[in-house]
Amino acid sequence: MENTVPLVDAHCHIDNTATIPNSDIVKCIMATNLDDFNTVSNQNNKLNGFGIHPWYSHLFSLNADCNDKVSHYKSVLHFSPNLPDSKIDQIIENSLPQPTNLNVVIQDNLDCFATLKFIGEIGLDKSFSLKLDDSIECQIKLDHQFKIFERLCQLANQFNLNVSIHDVKCTMYCFTTCEKLLFPNPNVKIILHSYNSSMDFLQNFWLKNLYDDKRIYLSISKKINFNKSNKLNIKLIPKDTILPETDLNVHDPNYCESLIYVYEHLMSIYNLSDLDACKRLLYANFSQMLE
Ligand SMILES: [Zn+2]
């Protein structure tokens, strides 16, 4: 019986390589932009997501008339005030593509969304800096990130899809957006991917509102949650909300090792008798999340 329970990965990625390896691991493959979404759409993986990662949100607009590339990027990116306007124009011209109208992408893929399991990876990131032209750093305005995030939450709501959320230092905004757009829909579950904010916030906001209805999950990664910077005391999180994840490209040479590492650490944190017990727990959580 134990051997029939597969390993699961609740959040991973893909490059443009044509095949998905390690077919014995059940994988939820997220998309972060249109390139990886197109790759994942052409795979026969069953658990795929559509998302615009906050790090790529500047490439998209919700305005039908976003054709003026320079004015779009000037409105969504924050450059150093020391950079002359002409230099900014030149950087935009040389290093950024024509913006994409997200509403057109959504309209063109309506059939496809019905076959997906997730909207993800989506979210907000206050710490990220975008590098352009090798040396110029700028930030994607939070205002713009909010708009793209909200639009994708509306999409999750429309198609009753679970969301896999990346949040760096926007915890309250992320919560209130979900509260407004997703909490009213009982068919949408929320997976906080590599959550690394406070335990208090987790308990008093996310768990308090969604735990009783089994609508909140935390996908735990080696690189964030078992890292020195980790703020979470995993032992205090209800174990039926925990999912394992790699957040790696499925072709990464460390992919399997990284997933096993999470399983082994969760096994000891929750005092489970052996790896099979851990596999059964995480598979039960995973099945519940997909129900
Ligand atoms: Zn990710």
From TrEMBL:
What molecular function terms (GO) are annotated for this protein?
hydrolase activity, acting on ester bonds
Q: Can you tell which superkingdom this protein's organism belongs to?
A: Eukaryota
First and last residue of the signal peptide: none
> What Pfam family is a match for this entry?
TatD_DNase
Positions of transmembrane segments: none
Assigned keywords, A-Z: Hydrolase
State the InterPro entries in the record: DNase_TatD-rel_CS, Metal_Hydrolase, Metallo-hydrolase/TatD-type, TatD-like
Protein's name according to its UniProt entry: Uncharacterized protein
Q: Which gene encodes it?
A: KAFR0B03750
